[in-house]
Amino acid sequence: MKGRKGIPNEVKKMRGTDQPCRMKQSAFNVDRISDIKKITSTKNLKLLPTKRAKDIFKQKANQLIALRVLTELDIEHLAVYANSLDIAFSCMEGMREPAVEKYNKEGFLIGYVPRPEIAMYKQMVEQINRIGAEFGFTPISRQRINQVPEDGKSFSDELKALL
Asked: CA 20 to 30 Å from 59, out of 15, 42, 69, 86?
């Protein structure tokens, strides 16, 4: 199927664009992870090699479950996000070490060799931002989702009342 990826019905409801013609039919909906209230263990998920990656996955998965946006199809994608974020943090730790000095044959300092973590960090940040935007983790992607104010009325409700 060509075209852009569909938006989940819950996100459409939060944005206020939940018109019947825009809602997905129940035959095409993916079962939400609604029976799980919180993820506490990632023992069976082999995609996460470190404890920090597992902690990131648990935190972000619980946030998405609370928003009722996470589907079973998103688990691997979220694991890639958590692993990329873990690698970016590891690169940040490696970049704290000073750059290697480069000398010529006479022994004079001619420059510095950049650390290999810098290039990998740039790649990971790009990947984190791209995947994070799909889940709504970046500031710009969050702006696209209208949050309901504390009084319970959204902007679209006020607009409907005016019209």
From this structure: 15
For 86-125, b/e burial (b = at least 16 CB within 10 A) is bbbbbbeeebeeeeeeeeeeeeeeeeeeebebeebbeebe
Backbone angles phi, psi at 32, to 5 degrees: -80, 160
pLDDT of res. 40: 62
Q: Of 22-26, 77-81, 127-131, 145-149, which range is least confident?
A: 145-149
Strand ranges (DSSP E) for 22-83? none
In 3D space, the residue among 9, 72, 12 whose CA is nearest the CA of residue 36 turns out to be: 72
Rounded Cα distance, 20 and 148, in Å: 20
pTM (global) more than 0.70: no
pLDDT digits (tens, 9 = 90+) for 19-77: 777 777 654 445 555 556 667 667 667 778 889 999 999 999 988 888 878 888 888 89
Q: Which amino acid is it at 117?
A: E
Those residues whose C-beta lies under 8 Å from the C-beta of residue 153, and which sit 6 or more positions away, are none
Is 39 in contact with 98 (CB distance < 8 Å)?
no
